[in-house]
Amino acid sequence: MSTKVQRTTRYLLLDQLKLAGWSILTLIGLFIVLPLLVSLLTGNIGHYQFLRDIANLNPGALFFLLIFIFGALTYDNFKLFIQNGISRRTYFSARLLSLILFSALCVIVVGIYYFAIHAPYMHWSTQQALLKTGTSLYAYAFGSNVTLNVALNLIFNWIFYIGTGLTGMACGTLLALFGKWAKTILIVGAPILGVIAIWLLAVVMVRSQSSFSYTGLEAFLKFLVGYPSHGPADAGYFNPVMPLITMLVGCGVIGTLAYLFNRKLRIRN
């Protein structure tokens, strides 16, 4: 790794950590400090439950938004670094490294919060907590080995965060290629076209339901999510191999698009 990549990565990572710190403080202020002040002013301090508010915070959703936003914020840093002798490749490499490091830190913080604060407050065992996460289908992938099951959950979340950041990078870099009016049209028009496309797809599927067999599609989707080939398809016993591979392939595709868009970036007058 070159010195320029290291320095650029350090700059981006420190900037992200500062913004994340302020965001966490804002979250605490809104959902802990503000309810405490309201309880004091209204004389209901006896009903205020500090531990409940702490346990019900959701830093995972906050980090998800931050990672996407950090990825989408492209042009200003690009202009700054290009004007200071940093190449497009160095800039992209530093963004990718800072995304990997920042998302890893987010996964660790969310994991500690969920399993060490939220789960004990809810009186859940670690395995019960795993069954209430987004990766509950794979909660028993390593049988009764709770440590490995938790590690798998963290790996899933890490890859998901990286994919989120890469998506933000691809979207932000693509928008940075266009002018103000074209960018506005894309931001407004893309969601509308997406909704129309989903509606048309739903209409076609409903109308062709009687004449088209979805057996092949169903089998393919089951394969992607790791549907058990033997035994009951109970939550916790799905195979995590194919979902992990699918997520990694998706990250590779989105990352390639982000890189290609990055090569087209230019400083606007």
What are its keywords?
single chain; 269 residues; mainly alpha; 10 helices
Structure description:
This protein has 269 residues and is mainly alpha-helical. It has 10 helices and no strands. The longest helix is centred in the N-terminal third of the chain and has 40 residues. The two termini are 32 Å apart. 22% of the residues are buried. The mean pLDDT is 86.
How would the blueprint of this fold be written?
Blueprint: H1 3-42, H2 50-55, H3 59-72, H4 75-82, H5 88-121, H6 126-130, H7 146-176, H8 180-207, H9 215-225, H10 241-263
Helix pairs in contact: 1-3, 1-5, 3-5, 3-7, 5-7, 7-10
How many helices? The count is 10
* Structural class designation: mainly alpha
User: How large a portion of the residues is in β-strands, by DSSP E?
Assistant: under 5%
* Number of E strands: 0
Please give the largest β-sheet. Answer: none
- Outline, from the CA principal axes? globular
Mind telling me the C-alpha Rg?
Answer: 22 Å
Overall average pLDDT: 86
Unreliable residue stretches: none
Percent range of helical residues: over 70%
Order of helices and strands: HHHHHHHHHH
Whole-Å distance between the termini? Answer: 32 Å
